[in-house]
Write a structure and sequence with these properties.
With 71 residues, the chain is mainly alpha-helical. The chain has one domain. It is built from two helices and no strands. α1 runs antiparallel to α2.
Length: 71
């Protein structure tokens, strides 16, 4: 069960780093002063990355909870 916990913690940390990266990408896009259409296109890509990072983080947290439950 310790291995399950460690893998879960690792996935959660990767997911949180991905979320922080998405925030930094959005701030960078905002500073670029793009047109509305270009900004919308860039933000759509960032939202897709954001959802992926959130999913990875959620899976990691589920693994942690499951590992604690089984211990």
């Amino acid at each position: 069960m310790t291995l399950l916990l460690m893998i879960g913690v690792g996935l959660s940390l990767i997911g949180v780093c991905g979320l922080i990266w998405c925030i930094l990408l959005a701030l960078k896009a905002r500073k670029m002063g793009l047109s509305e259409a270009d900004m919308r296109q860039k933000l759509q890509k960032i939202v897709a990355l954001n959802l992926g990072a959130l999913a990875i983080s959620a899976v990691g947290l589920m693994m942690v909870a499951f590992g604690i439950f089984l211990s």
